[in-house]
Fold GTP 3',8-cyclase.
Amino acid sequence: MTTAGLVDQYGRVATDLRVSLTDRCNLRCTYCMPAEGLAWLPNSLVLTDDEVIRLVRVAVERLGVDEVRFTGGEPLIRPGLTKIVTAAAELSPRPRLSLTTNGIGLDKLARPLRDAGLDRVNVSLDTLDAERFDRLTHRRRLPDVLAGLAAAQAAGLAPVKINSVLMRDINEDEAPALLRFALAEGYQLRFIEQMPLDAQHAWDRIRMVTAKEILSTLEAEFTLLPDPAERGGAPAETWLVDGFTGSDGRPAKVGVIGSVTRPFCGDCDRTRLTADGQVRNCLFAREESDLRGALRGGADDEEIARRWRTAMWAKRAGHGIDDPTFLQPARPMSAIGG
Ligand code: SAM
Ligand code: SF4
């Protein structure tokens, strides 16, 4: 068996696989999709559970992937999720397994997912205010998200991380309140700069809440100290929150993912698989490589691995958002898998 990894022409090695399990979602976050939703992928194009499991196996066994994150759309609405996690946890070498979710339904699924082998979750929560939550997501589901977070903590899916996106004129002032909540509950909070990946193409660089702005708002209330831990390929820059302890008994941390103003492309170790079986070498890639066709056309594992390596070799040096020729990818975030 060949085990050459996913190397690109700049020497980066992708070991972290993001698998989108569906492009559908039960929320409508304004920075992600329009209130009326999107034209979903037809079922016939979406990988079956067995196809997903096979591609994850190829990635782990032949391509050196050691971390698998399930995402979407909303991965908790995929009926086969527990089966897929169980199969991924049986792979050798066993990859670390995590899930990015909006948290709706996690109150019931946290324990079964933990039992299936899931290690961790990231739950997206942008506001603690019910009225703002409705405005941001077009759904009245804040209590469900809070219940999902608590269930994840109780099930030991630790550390439970929260992802927050701040939007101008909606929740731009909420960074300190979100951090207070996370510190009190023992969650690890990370802010993500809003990226040009919304289906409506409404992103506006000038109105974006920047990493710098988020940090200065936090510093008005908290003392943030440099985190001595190695960042590696992690997208979040992290700080220790002086005087607070995390649920693991270590100093509490807060993170900021400055994808736009502080890009980390040079250290990126990601490869992505969409729900319809396309490899993407970057969130912002405009090209994809079709593995579903290969899979359904009878390709063996080595042929699939070869195609995947070729796709990753072509990864660009950076996302190019600041380049005047930048074009937003055709797929929105919900269909790529964030
Ligand atoms: N539905 C799940 C969720 O919301 O966590 C998983 C998919 S969602 C696309 C993954 C992450 O991408 C979420 O944390 C969400 O906040 C983030 N996201 C979506 N659109 C974004 C955008 N335009 N800019 C920055 N982050 C975005
Ligand atoms: Fe759904 Fe996640 Fe997009 Fe929000 S960010 S609409 S929860 S896919």
